[in-house]
């Protein structure tokens, strides 16, 4: 489950290591949470990268994963030490046993049981 930061990195830099890793994945192996999509869409509305057409093309390659009841229940169990988007994403990933792909590993370090990978290296 790719987070907003890594998604934006992939969308604005075609030569990024994130894109290299995405290219090695099978369709559907990587998803983006509707939580991360909301964070990116807000940025697009504020005229931050990526451009709207690039976001739509990204969603064709990386499908949206809806935040559902299981994710909401997991969210209710998490401590609130950081930004809410990060807590929501962590809960969503935990609810489906997904790995979070992020460049901000420290933002998720206090979430017990959450697996995190950094594809920017």
Task: Give the tags.
121 residues; mainly alpha; Rossmann fold; two-stranded parallel sheet; 4 strands; 8% strand
Please give a quick description of this structure.
The protein has 121 residues and is mainly alpha-helical. The chain has six helices and four strands; from the N terminus they run H-H-E-H-H-E-H-H-E-E.
Describe the structure.
49% of the residues lie in helices and 8% in strands. By secondary structure, it is mostly helical. It has a single domain (4-117), classed as Rossmann fold. The strands form two sheets. The protein has a two-stranded parallel ribbon with strand order 1-2. A two-stranded parallel sheet has the order 3-4. Helix 5 packs across helix 6. It is globular. It starts with a helix and ends with a strand. It comes from Novosphingobium resinovorum. InterPro entries: PIN-like_dom_sf (IPR029060), PIN_dom (IPR002716), Type_II_TA_system_RNase (IPR050556).
CATH topology tier name: Rossmann fold
Query: How many distinct beta strands?
Result: 4
Mean pLDDT comes to: 94
Spatially, the strands of the biggest sheet line up as 1-2
How does the overall form come out from the CA principal axes? Answer: globular
CATH architectural name: 3-Layer(aba) Sandwich
CATH top level is Alpha Beta
Largest sheet: 2 strands, parallel
How far from one another are the termini? 17 Å
Beta percentage is 5-15%
CATH superfamily: 5'-nuclease
Q: How large is the count of helical segments? A: 6
Task: Indicate the low-confidence ranges by residue numbers.
Answer: none
Number of domains: 1
- Give the SSE string: HHEHHEHHEE
Structural class: mainly alpha
Helix share bin: 40-55%
Radius of gyration, Cα only, in angstroms?
A: 14 Å
InterPro entries: PIN-like_dom_sf, PIN_dom, Type_II_TA_system_RNase
Protein name: Putative hydrolase
Family: Belongs to the PINc/VapC protein family.
Pfam family, one: PIN
């Amino acid at each position: 489950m790719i987070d907003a930061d890594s998604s934006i990195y992939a969308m604005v830099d075609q030569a990024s290591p994130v894109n290299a890793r995405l290219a090695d994945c099978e369709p559907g192996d990587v998803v983006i949470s509707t939580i991360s999509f909301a964070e990116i869409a807000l940025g697009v509305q504020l005229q931050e990268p990526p451009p709207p057409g690039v976001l739509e093309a990204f969603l064709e390659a990386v499908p949206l994963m809806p935040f559902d009841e299981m994710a909401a229940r997991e969210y209710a169990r998490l401590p609130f030490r950081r930004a809410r988007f990060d807590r929501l994403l962590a809960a969503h990933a935990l609810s489906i046993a997904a790995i979070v792909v992020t460049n901000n590993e420290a933002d998720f370090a206090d979430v017990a049981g959450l697996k995190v990978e950094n594809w920017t290296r």
